[in-house]
Design a protein that fits this description.
It contains 16 helices and nine strands. The protein is an alpha+beta fold and 402 residues long. β7 and β8 form a beta hairpin. α3 runs parallel beside α5 and α4 runs antiparallel to α5.
Length: 402
């Protein structure tokens, strides 16, 4: 049985390599938790306590709720908290969480919007092929007019547009979970509480959207389970990644960032990237005269990256991305083997699947092991596996800021 949470699927979408580290290799990195997530969890704790008290017929005061928040902060605080935003400190985040609770309290007291059906309610959604979706709902309510409501608390600084909230996939998961549990529900409403802004955004998902989401999730799970490679996907989120220190896309930067200038300029990777930048710039002006030297530098850079297991090598103002992937090469139209390949693809009923024999689609399908074993065996003589190397150059982010 394959179990997936929203965060697990979203991790693969954000960065396949992070997914591999966390869920396949199961690498555990001892890093301090991020202060944003810690603050959000403590605010959730206080609101969960608040609604439990309301369920017992008691409405706590605002000071009571803030006191619980502060108690949980002190009790749960780890030895260190990771703060990426250098302009803020722990006290600023703690105060932001307190203000979130005060705004929420003033807006919703006396907290009698309906019947609370669950707090931090766990759910499981069975899909086809043994796939099960797991998750938790912050607060599940039923209003007087019979509408089921999912309430989710957000402490993020960004307030999305209603359209973006309407398209939020996590909301679709919640709607699926409620409809699976309460198939008689005529309406399921999603209420997102953006606590910092004292704003609420409501949305709904139609049954057709829920069905489409189910099929999309099944396809994504199949893609993950068939994946042979898990490349790093660099983004602004890298600074918050637990695996930053072991990521091959960040390893060289970490290795050279602490070097003094005289050592940095002579570091082999830096020298190679800087030389490659010069050569490619010269090539644009002089034509093919520099091609051979560029190839020599690229070969040296590839060997350097392989030796140190880097996928990104930094220079002064640029950095080189080095990627290797195994591809399946198939006969092209001028190859004598092309005609028997086409005959085999038609005979096996794969012609429509690869868009009139798109070599890239067929090659990808064979590389991922998608055709049935008998079909793969028949097509194997036409396929040659080879390693494709790509070396790219890009401006360093800090260079763009200068």
């Amino acid at each position: 049985m394959a179990r997936y949470s929203y965060s697990k699927l979203n991790t693969y979408r954000t960065c396949p390599l992070q997914y591999r580290f966390r869920y396949i290799d199961k690498i555990r990195i001892e890093v301090a938790p991020g202060v944003e997530a810690f603050m959000g969890s403590r605010a959730h704790d206080a609101l969960e306590w608040l609604y439990k008290q309301v369920g017992h017929g008691r409405v706590p005061t605002q000071d009571d709720v803030v006191a619980v928040y502060n108690e949980r902060w002190d009790a749960e605080r780890p030895g260190d908290l990771r703060i990426v935003n250098e302009d803020l400190d722990e006290a600023a985040y703690r105060d932001a969480g307190r203000r979130c609770l005060e705004l929420y309290y003033r807006r919703h007291t006396p907290f009698d919007e309906g019947i609370v059906l669950g707090l931090e309610e766990g759910f499981q959604i069975p899909l086809e092929n043994g796939i099960v979706l797991n998750g938790f709902i912050d607060r599940l309510m039923k209003t007087e007019d019979g509408v089921y409501e999912v309430h989710d608390y957000k402490t993020s600084q960004r307030l999305p547009t209603p359209a973006k909230a309407r398209a939020d996939e996590q909301g679709g998961w919640y709607a699926l979970a409620v409809r699976k549990r309460f198939p008689h529900a005529r309406e399921v409403r999603l209420v997102w509480h953006y606590l910092r802004h004292d704003e609420e955004i409501e949305s709904e998902r139609t049954p057709e959207e829920a069905e489409a989401l189910e099929q999309d999730i099944v396809c994504r799970v199949r893609t993950i389970e068939a994946a042979a490679e898990f490349p790093a996907h660099e983004s602004a989120l890298c600074d918050w990644c637990d695996y930053f220190g072991i990521c091959p896309a960040k390893g060289h930067r970490l290795a050279v960032d602490t070097l003094p200038p005289n050592e940095y300029l002579n570091e082999p990777g830096v020298v190679l990237v800087n030389r490659l930048v010069e050569l490619r710039a010269t090539l644009k002006m002089t034509g093919e005269a520099m091609t051979e030297e560029i190839e020599r530098v690229e070969d040296a850079l590839l060997r350097y990256a392989r030796e140190h297991r880097y996928t990104v090598v930094v220079g002064d103002d640029h950095e080189a991305t080095v990627s290797e992937s195994e591809v399946v090469s198939l006969p092209r139209k001028d190859d004598p083997a092309r005609e028997p390949l086409e005959a085999a693809v038609r005979r096996l009923g794969l012609w429509d699947d690869v868009s009139d024999l798109s070599l890239s689609k067929l090659g990808k399908a064979l590389a991922e092991g998608q055709p049935p074993p008998a079909a793969r065996a028949e097509l194997a003589p036409f396929a040659a596996r080879e390693t494709r190397v790509t070396i790219g150059l890009r401006k360093k982010r800090d260079a763009e800021d200068r």
